[in-house]
Structure formats: C-alpha cells, structure tokens
Write a structure and sequence with these properties.
Shape: globular
Largest sheet: 4 strands, parallel
Radius of gyration: 16 Å
Number of helices: 8
Strand content: 5-15%
Helix content: 25-40%
Distance between the termini: 26 Å
Number of strands: 4
Length: 185
C-alpha cells in the first residue's frame, strides 16, 4: 500500500494533516492539484474575462489537463483536487463539473469540525471585512491561511503530500505567493 495521506487532527501537526480526510490514500492519490477560485471583489485581470470571473469550467479543465501533463501514464481516477475559495458555491460547482471519480478536498468537506468552520460562508469583499464581527474576521483569516498552505504546499512536514501543481488566476496574491515553493523545489 502506498504512503497514506496524513489524517492527524493534533494542533501540533501541519495543515495538510488536519485537512485531508482518511478516505484518500496514496494508492489512489499520489498527490493532488490545488485549485484556488477567488470570487467576491476580485475580478479577472485577463481580457477574456475582463470585469467578470474566470468560469469554473476553466479551473476544472486546467486541473485535469495539468494532472494529465504531470502524470501522462496515470488515469484521471487518481486525481484529487483541493479547492480553496471564498465562494461557498465554487466547491459544489467544481464537484459537478469534474468527473465523478475525482476526489474533492476542501475546508467545507473536512471531517474536522474545527477546520470546517473556517470554510468561507460568503464571497470575500475587502471593504466589508472591517464591518464583520471579530470571530468572523478571525475565521476568515485563519481559513485563508489554511487554504494557502494547502494550495501552495507551504509548511508541509517531511513526507507529507504537497500539491503537484496549483491552478489559479494571475491577479490573485495567493496564486503569486504559491509559486515561491516551486523556487525551492
């Protein structure tokens, strides 16, 4: 049997250990593709989607094509996607578009209730943030840090799985910073 994805929920363990559920093992998931779907007040910088959002189909297609490019002899059934998003509907939308044999991982799907509560309840708008209650701001910030760790592979402990790739839009800071790990690989 392959390397098991970490499933510990101890606070001393890394983010990967806390988020990934025990259903996935390396025998079916050698790793995963991180996908960041930003909605709220961040519009696409690409002319194709100027003043709008990149369609969710584009993220799904990019995740599938990336996995196939990285693992040309691997079949899509081994694909797992970690979706980080400020949009509660993005998770369900991506799940509906990807083939049914693709595993979807996210804060909203976490078996750990302490992490599940960090899933974004609404699309993020920077101008509204200071009007949120302290607990809501704390959860949004912590959730974003966890999502960043998962889509980037930052802070993973030795021998923990990290994403093979990250799919995101160019104008997003999370996307830009996620590439830093690639420089050290």
């Amino acid at each position: 049997m392959g390397k098991k994805l970490p499933t510990s929920t101890k606070k001393t363990k890394s983010t990967t250990s806390n988020v990934v559920t025990s259903e996935a093992t390396a025998s079916h998931t050698p790793s995963y593709v991180g996908v960041h779907v930003r909605r709220g007040d961040l519009r696409a910088t690409s002319w194709s989607f100027h003043k709008g959002y990149v369609p969710i189909n584009n993220y799904a297609q990019a995740a599938l094509e990336t996995w196939t490019r990285i693992f040309p002899s691997s079949s899509v059934p081994s694909l797992a996607v970690y979706i980080a998003s400020d949009s509660p509907s993005a998770d369900a939308d991506l799940k509906n578009i990807l083939p049914p044999n693709v595993s979807i991982l996210s804060l909203s799907r976490s078996a750990n209730p302490e992490l599940k509560v960090l899933a974004s309840p609404k699309e993020y708008v920077q101008n509204d943030f200071n009007g949120w209650g302290e607990e809501e701001r704390k959860n949004a910030t912590t959730g974003m840090i966890v999502d960043f760790a998962m889509v980037s592979g930052m802070w993973a402990w030795k021998d923990e799985l990290i994403p093979e790739a990250t799919v995101c839009t160019i104008g997003c800071v999370l996307c830009i910073i996620s590439t830093f790990r690639l420089c050290g690989s």
